[in-house]
Amino acid sequence: MASLDTAATRPAVASRQPATDAPGVPPADPPMAAEPLNEPALSPGKRRFLIAFFFVAVMALWQGSVTWLEVSPLIFPGPIAVARSLYQLFASGEIYPHLGVTLYEILAGFAFGAALGFLLGALIGQSAVLEAVLYPYVVAFQTVPKVAVAPLFVLWFGFDTTSKVVITATIVFFPVLANTIVGLRSAPRDQIDLMKAFTASGWHVFRMVRLPSALPYVFAGLDIGIVLAVIGAIVGEFVGAQAGLGYLVLQRNFSMDTPGMFAILIVLSAIGIVLHMLMRTIARRVVFWSDSFSDLSHGT
After folding, report:
1. Per-residue pLDDT for 271 more than 60?
2. Which residues contact 181 (CB under 8 A, 6 or more apart)?
3. Which of 128, 129, 111, 107 is closest to 119 using CA atoms?
4. Is the pLDDT confidence value at 296 over 60?
């Protein structure tokens, strides 16, 4: 009787088997994980060719559109007129004194703002008390538009380069400060505990663990700050100046020299690009163990 019950239950057990176990039906393949799409890196020669080709295409489209639509040079000049004005600026030597003034304001303001941002960020990044006390006021100051407070700086520090340096420093200050704080707090906790277990002082922990971990973040803030420094110097010169590239832009605006304005803007853009590349080159030399800057800087 038991054998009959067992035989009766066998078909039911077999019927509960997956359909893929039936003879003649191949088992289903397990789901394949999606492979990441890794595009091959461009060679430096191909990268330069693409950049040059894109530049030539944009210039041709620009000149062709201005010529075909018969746009007045007072409204939107073509690249040929802009190139002619750029050549005249350098050939006459008019731009060199103003270029020197603006470069001084950019570099001095960047140095002052970056140093202050790093020092204050190093203090806040290691002290919860200082963060609770100072950081809200720093954020509140950063939210104030610098264009709105620029006239006050000119009133306090005069129309010379000092007010422009201060304005530039205030713009550079916050990116360096924020990145320094984040970088110091990204240090591996196990390394810090190990250093403290060997009775290392706070200075040794900062120098050997926290600072190396923070350097990629610090240079990211410096890279942002060096570009913003150009904006800060020009904003200060727009508010009130007696020399500088911003002062030249205002002069060209009053005389309705639109190609000359475009030419000066190209010079300012070139300054920002050169400073950006210089900062990334320094970062690759100093933070050589990090890949944070190699990808974006490759081929430049």
Report:
1. yes
2. 121, 124, 125, 131
3. 111
4. no
pLDDT at position 275, please? 94
Token pair recorded at residue 46: 């191909």
Q: What pTM did the predictor assign? A: 0.78
Domain 98-297, CATH number (from 3.30.410.40, 1.10.3720.10, 2.160.20.10, 1.10.3300.10):
1.10.3720.10
Is the pLDDT confidence value at 256 over 80? yes
Nearest to residue 170, comparing CAs of 212, 209, 129, 228?
A: 228
**Could you report the per-residue pLDDT of 240-252, keeping only the tens digit for each?**
888 889 999 999 9
Residue 171 Cα distances to 67, 117, 143, 234, 272, angstroms: 40, 10, 11, 12, 15
- pLDDT (tens digit per residue) in 122-145: 998 888 888 888 888 888 888 888
Dump the DSSP string for 196-231: HHTT--HHHHIIIIIHHHHHHHHHHHHHHHHHHHHH
Token duo for residue 20: 């893929």
Three-state SS for 126?
coil
Q: CA triplet 145, 149, 150: central angle to 5 degrees?
A: 110
CA distances from 158 to 98, 99, 162, 221, 276 (A): 18, 20, 7, 29, 29
Q: So where are the chain's domains?
A: 98-297
Give me the pLDDT at residue 1, please: 42
